[in-house]
Automatic annotation (TrEMBL):
Residues 47-107 form the TRAM domain. It comes from Quercus rubra. The active site is at 504 (nucleophile). The keyword S-adenosyl-L-methionine applies. One of its GO terms (biological process) is RNA processing. InterPro entries: MeTrfase_TrmA_CS (IPR030391), NA-bd_OB-fold (IPR012340), SAM-dependent_MTases_sf (IPR029063), TRAM_dom (IPR002792), U5_MeTrfase_fam (IPR010280). Belongs to the class I-like SAM-binding methyltransferase superfamily. RNA M5U methyltransferase family. GO terms for molecular function: RNA methyltransferase activity; S-adenosylmethionine-dependent methyltransferase activity. Keywords: Methyltransferase, S-adenosyl-L-methionine, Transferase. This is TRAM domain-containing protein. SUPFAM superfamilies: Nucleic acid-binding proteins, S-adenosyl-L-methionine-dependent methyltransferases.
Amino acid sequence: MATMPSHGLRLRHLTTTTTTTRPFLRTLHSAQVQVQQQPSKPNKSYFPKRGQTLELVCESLGFKGKGLCKVADTGFVVMCDRALPGERFIGRVTRKKDNYAEVTKVKTISPHWDFVDAPCEYASYCGGCKTQNLSYEAQLRAKEQQVRELVMHVGKFSCEELESLNIMKPIVPCDIQFHYRNKYVIHSKLIFIPTVELITAMYFVVIEKNGILIGTQEWLPKELLLEKQDGSESYALGLHAPGFFDKVLNVNKCYCKVLAAIQGCWRDPQLGISAYNVHSHAGFLKHLMLRTGRDVKTGLPELMVNFVTSSYKPELLKPLVEKISSIPEVVSVMNNVNSSIGNTSVGEEEYTLSGKSAITEILRGLTFQISANSFFQTNTHQAEVLYKLIEECAGLRGDGSEIVLDLFCGTGTIGLTLARKARQVYGYEVVAQAIADACLNAKLNNIYNATFVKGDLNKIDESFGNNFPKPDVVISDPNRPGMHMKLIKFLLKLKAPRIVYVSCNPATCARDLDYLCHGVIDKNLEGCYKLKSLQAVDMFPHTPHIECLPVGALLIHRA
């Protein structure tokens, strides 16, 4: 999760040499914003009131890509969604905290810097790629700056240290800035267009957070409400409305053949397909998942379609299956049955309705088999770039003499790419299915020097490490919460020559770098590593969420 600076430089002036301090970042936690220096006894006028309108100027991007502003004369911190650096606007206070407030933009007075026209007509409304109207160069500067400040204030590395030792590398941009995702999760529900102004809608996700959804209730922007207040009932297939778990912005234009085919017929009442309702828990079709890969022999794209339903009724899906199976790219049609009331796309049972049960993808010269619920990097093109950087940071000699410990190994993608130069790779992961996929991928690529073990790295004890020799290189790729203190202790005791830390959350990454390099005073732990390089890679262009920015950090043991 990204952070929110308490005040910021104007985005066009953000550079890797800036030394501007932002006091609240010194005590920043990944899920909180804290301002360290505040007036000791502010008067009541210091705090804006809920419902109050303010004229504001956005100074920088911060937490979750929200615009960071300051109230004139007082300097009180205000956050506004969809406000971009340099934009002057009128905002209405909707929520007030002790040290900051949130506002909703009412009217733009003058546009922001680095303005570009968003190519998607839904960019102003959906919760996905909402920084499309900010130039890509400006997006990169903002993301790089946030990583730098986190490493300085949370990781406690000085600006001089980062600059003089050339630790902080320039952010790596993504060459493909649109249509880069290889997985889509679409949700399904019934909608009723009410005759009152308050319209409740439905939910849609594209890749875990942003995406296309089929819903029971449709969300409409305020300017379109009057057009739809007819009391009619229909279905929605569209994008997740920001801030709502059960609302969807209907999308009339579709660039995917499969979605277009399904959207054109699934509403037909003769098919008898009912959309699942997240409130009443009634209905049949819950989600539609699309995954793309490549044929190993031809290199041509192949597509998997996965229907997630509340029960197993293949006769209801048969017309849809026949229609989409005629599309040449569709090589696999699956049905995951999820009878629980939860909104997950993972089913308790899985059936193959047409074609293969899995598709393949090629990454760093290796072939990976992807099932309906396998984890795989969502941006395949940029994953090539990221994994190449990991290989370079690992610094394996290539003579087959070194041991690699792959923590949070997932389906083994990183470990297997390093196995070609290592003597042995040992991978640990808590998810059983991921371990099974890792073993399968190793066999598929004729790699026999990789061992994958199921284990919870948050619950290791003193015996962890007895089943493998001391590694020459440790790869750690934790999820957003970062590494548990038990694992930090293990690594400090291990004193491995090199650690490559890969993270989707720069805040917890910076925290863990502080622990590994500077120690943990209250735990009486002494740091024993030195930060050698820090490399940011933009995996998801046009998204403001900093957690989509993997960060690679190379640490070496201080001899």
